[in-house]
Amino acid sequence: MTSVPMTQSSATESPDDRGSDGPYLQVEDLKVTFPTQDGPVTAVSGLTYSVEKGKTLGIVGESGSGKSVSSMAVMGLHDTKSAQISGSIRVGGTEVVGLSEAKMRGLRGNSMAMIFQDALAALHPFYKIGGQLEEAYLVHHSSASKRDARRKAIEMLDRVGIPQPDRRVDDFPHQFSGGMRQRAMIAMGLINDPSLLIADEPTTALDVTVQAQILDLLQDLQREFNSAVIIITHDLGVIAEMADDVLVMYAGRCVEYGTTKQILTAPEMPYTWGLLSSIPDVGASTDARLIPIPGNPPSLLRPPSGCSFHPRCVHSDKVPGDLCRTELPELVPASSGTAHLKRCHLADPVGVYTTEVLPEIAPELVEETR
Amino acid sequence: MFAYVVKRLISGVLVVTLVSMAIFLLFWYGPSSPAQPICDRETSNRCTQAKLAVYEKTLGYDNPVYEEYGKYVKGIFVGRTLTIASNDYECSAPCMGVSFRTKQPVKEELVSRIPATFSIAIGGAFLYLLFGVPIGVAAARRRGSVADKALVSSFLFISSVPYYLFALLTWLYLTITFEVPFFSDTGYFPITQDGPFKWFSGLFLAWVALGIFGCTQYTRFTRGAMVEALSEDYIRTAKAKGLPTRTIVYKHGLRAALVPVVTIFGIDFGTLLAGTIFTERIFEIQGIGWWSLEAVQGRDLPVVQATALFSAVVLIISNLLVDVVYSVLDPRVRLS
Question: In chain A, count of helices (H) and strands (E)?
């Protein structure tokens, strides 16, 4: 048998080497627009962020806030006929906006991979788990044999904790449990050792105990493969556990960006406060209240004027004049540090947060600070 | 799987039995005596009550219905001798009766007509799958484009035309108006007697009519199934793996889209095999469809009975095949 190295790499062309000095993924001023019959829908605009290898960026926001759309733009998964993408996305130093489909294909699943929520729908129902993993491996390792691919598939299934991987490799997706399917999905994403892994709500369809296992697995694998990870979620619990940095999105824009600690302990944007207020916490005192954000996410077809969040914002009366309604706030450094950015007109967000928001959501923290 | 097929075959036999009973009873308790057609025919429409009684007696219609049904079933397995008025007709197993018009055993004519109908059905289905499925896939990949819209609306127009009209116009234009060489002499010419060319040219126009009409339907089925498949999450996964477009469309998309198409095809094809009345009549092909039409017109009860039973058997078999193929195509379907 020929000894094909298992982690064969196309080192000469790999973008991983060239871009090793800066962050692995750099997104700048990304804008994604879908022309529709009712007019253009700008799903993402002015989005800028970066992720280094070994780091995890959490992207949070409600449905329709542009979390998935922006990540699919990174992967080049939008149909070029129906989505207009502008700005810059650099993956390992390679500009992928406007990159040819053939070159993009070489990156997808290879240097960057994506795992999706609801693995039952995301895996092909008619092909065996092993076959789907092998396919992902073979497409980027044209010289590898079917047998190598199968060995690699079994190895990856074993790595993500599938029991008896040499037997389960021949199962169909419907024969796996929900958690196992998500593990298989992760195995498929990581089979080519990508430097960037995007996990789109990887635990949403799973029950809570399995969620924790999957998150642990992702963390282990990140340490092992030292990849840059983007985790898309609406669950701040997942963020607290996984992310180094957090990007809060609302109506297609970044409204707050900072380290996880900054976002979770000193948020400065009313929308982030709203997200924090609406998480139930079993450890909290019984005085703590669960406060939903009033209203619904805005239509991206006719986004609100000024700050997109103003129609739902309970603090806009603290801003003088009609500023919230007329002018889109810039993304400016927040008071807690230069890396912390926020998009809000409030003059004293820290004051409002400590006097009004914190007592409502976590009274015990207020006691401590006094 | 094997156990499932056996189970289905047993239930199929049961259904065929019930169908045969139903057909038998329908004629038995029909508005006129089952002997009326033959009596009218033999006496040149001067069938008197006394003459009718003779036919009824010799055909056994004065016996209880279960007794005659028993004889009918027994005839299918071992054959029987039928008496009509004063003549005896030998009918060997499987005896499905003797035609009131030709006085020949129905089975012999049925067997002689099967090749014509099957030739039409197989050729027509081959053509419409050959063109319908790829055109449907191409349309689905370009969905929303001008070409797709033009194709879908024109195909919808063609398939809105009643098939008999479509086939008739095809025949009129191609044989009378344009006199297409070689193919204008339509009909069924057995390949063993007249050679493959005559066979082919005789059936060609029928295939074209059936093929074009079926193609418009299968293009729409395939397009619909394909559009749905291509919007599935697993297609996005396939794309995210970096697979080439061909692999995504065919291996992942078409593979899934084929399941509903195959299901529809199984039923459709079964119907075709049971007799293509319009196609056979218009293109003058002596198949089962035309035969059953003539039998109905001539009140030839044994033939009507036989063709109805034949359709039932063919449809039951094609349904069984669809289910088996379905379980092969979709691993989630467990046959048990």
Answer: 16, 12
Q: Closest to A77 (Cβ–Cβ): which among B234, B240, B332?
A: B240
Residue predicted with more confidence, B150 or A347:
B150
Are A122 and B233 in contact, with CB atoms under 8 Å apart? yes
Indicate whether A196 and A331 sit together in one domain: no
Overall number of domains in chain A: 2
Please give the pLDDT value at position A285. 62
In a domain, A252, yes or no: no
Q: Which residue of B has its CA nearest to A106?
A: B242
Taking the C-alpha atoms of residue A233 and residue A252, their distance in angstroms, rounded to an integer, is: 15
Residue A6 confidence class, pLDDT cut points 50, 70, 90: very low
The strand pairing partners of A200, in sequence order, are A232
Terminal C-alpha separation, chain A: 71
pLDDT band at A4 (very low <50, low <70, confident <90, very high): very low
Tokens representing A139 are 């497409």
pLDDT digits (tens, 9 = 90+) for A123-146: 999 999 999 999 999 999 999 999
What is the rounded average pLDDT of the residues A355-360? 83
Whether A80 and A159 share a structural domain: yes
CATH class of the domain whose range is B107-329: mainly alpha
Q: What share of chain B is helix, strand, coil (3-state, %, to 5)?
A: 75, 5, 25
User: The domain containing residue A193 runs over which residues?
Assistant: 21-243
Gap between the Cα atoms of B18 and B25, Å rounded: 10
**B contact set with A (CB within 8 A):** 232-234, 236-245, 247, 252, 255-256, 329-332
Domain residue limits, chain B: 2-105, 107-329
Best of B232, B237, B248, B250 to substitute, by most chain A Cβ atoms within 10 angstroms, is B237
Are A202 and A272 members of one domain? no
A chain contacts of residue B236, beta-carbon cutoff 8 Å: 77, 116, 122
For residue range B244-254, list pLDDT tens digits in order: 999 999 999 99
- Is the Cβ pair B241, A122 closer than 8 Å? no
Regarding whether A113 and A201 lie in a shared domain, the answer is yes
> Is residue A188 located within the same domain as residue A285?
no
Candidates A186, A196, A54; CA nearest to A117 is A186
Pairwise CB contact (< 8 Å): B237 & A123: yes
Q: Are strands A245-250 and A253-259 parallel, antiparallel or unpaired?
A: antiparallel
Contact B331 A174 (CB under 8 A): yes
- Asked if residue A336 and residue A201 are part of one domain, the reply reads no
Q: For residues A171 and B52, what is the distance between their CA atoms, to the nearest angstrom?
A: 69
Q: Are residues A233 and A284 in the same domain?
A: no
Give pLDDT tens digits for A212-224: 889 999 999 999 8
Mark whether A40 and A187 lie in a shared domain. yes
In this structure, is residue A255 part of a structural domain? no
Classify B76 as helix, strand or coil: helix
